[in-house]
Amino acid sequence: MSTKIIDKLGLITIHNSKVAMVRSHNKTLFYIPGGKREQGETDQQALSREIDEELTLTLHPESIRFYGEFTGLADGKQDGTQVCIRCYQADYDGIPQPAAEIAELAWLDSNDADRCSITAIAVLAQLKADNLIK
């Protein structure tokens, strides 16, 4: 049996030693904002589109830089499906606010792991190890 992998892109946005995390409508756990790539999109194109849709931010394409790749059990999937999220940091125009399927935006740190998806917990741990969040 092959494991299904969900390919996603995410934006790491840090402010006051906390990282922006989002929660979708009808979900309880928070995750890194971003989403799935559409056919033919580069990481940067997909990330820019998803972040505009979810947080109403315009990313500066030249500022997009790779942070890390994280894999974990997909939230709400009972069949062993994994999510692999390639995370980036970027400069942007606008103020992050929830839009589209996003119900809530929260600024979290490593003390909030119990509110996050498995993959988001891995991101929190790396950000803390890199002294980017508390």
Main sheet attributes: strand count, strand direction, barrel closure? 4 strands, mixed
Helix amount, in percent? 10-25%
| Contiguous helical run count | 2
Q: Structural class of the secondary structure composition?
A: alpha+beta
* Estimated share of beta-strand residues: 35-45%
Oligomer: single chain
Shape: globular
- Helix and strand succession? EEEEHEEEEEH
End-to-end distance, in Å?
Answer: 40 Å
Report the uncertain regions: none
Strand order of the largest sheet: 4-1-7-6
Question: What does this molecule look like?
Answer:
It is built from 2 helices and 9 strands; from the N terminus they run ββββαβββββα. It is an alpha+beta fold. A hairpin with a 2-residue loop joins strand 2 (about 15) and strand 3. The protein is globular and about 40 Å long. The strands form 3 sheets. Strands 4-1-7-6 form a 4-stranded mixed β-sheet. InterPro entries: NUDIX_hydrolase-like_dom_sf, NUDIX_hydrolase_CS, NUDIX_hydrolase_dom. Pfam families: NUDIX. Keywords: Hydrolase. This is NUDIX domain-containing protein.
Chain-wise SSE layout:
Blueprint: E1 5-11, E2 14-15, E3 18-24, E4 34-36, H1 43-55, E5 58-59, E6 65-73, E7 82-89, E8 92-93, E9 102-108, H2 118-129
Parallel strand pairs: 1-7
Antiparallel strand pairs: 1-4, 2-3, 3-9, 5-8, 6-7
